[in-house]
């Protein structure tokens, strides 16, 4: 994967139903200025959820790449530090 993720010009409709079925979700409006977007685990730890999404994105899943592109840069940096380039 590339070091940066950008949303495709015509992004697919992102549906959190699949994420919830996989045990994670995306939370918007986090952080001190309410401008952060985080990926969190529902039934597992956040790092486990990050690993699952990063692994699926690395295997070419457009859905998981779209999920990572929605995250704030700080969140993507934390994932990159633990799991390598996105």
From TrEMBL:
It comes from the Bacteria. This is Uncharacterized protein. It comes from Gluconobacter cerinus. The lineage of its organism: Bacteria, Pseudomonadati, Pseudomonadota, Alphaproteobacteria, Acetobacterales.
């Amino acid at each position: 994967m590339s070091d940066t993720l950008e949303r495709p010009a015509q992004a697919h409709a992102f549906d959190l139903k699949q994420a919830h079925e996989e045990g994670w979700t995306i939370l918007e409006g986090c952080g001190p200025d309410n401008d952060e977007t985080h990926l969190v685990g529902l039934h597992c730890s956040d790092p486990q959820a990050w690993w699952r999404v990063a692994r699926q994105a690395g295997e070419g899943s457009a859905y998981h790449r779209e999920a990572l592109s929605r995250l704030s840069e700080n969140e993507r940096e934390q994932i990159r530090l633990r799991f390598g380039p996105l």
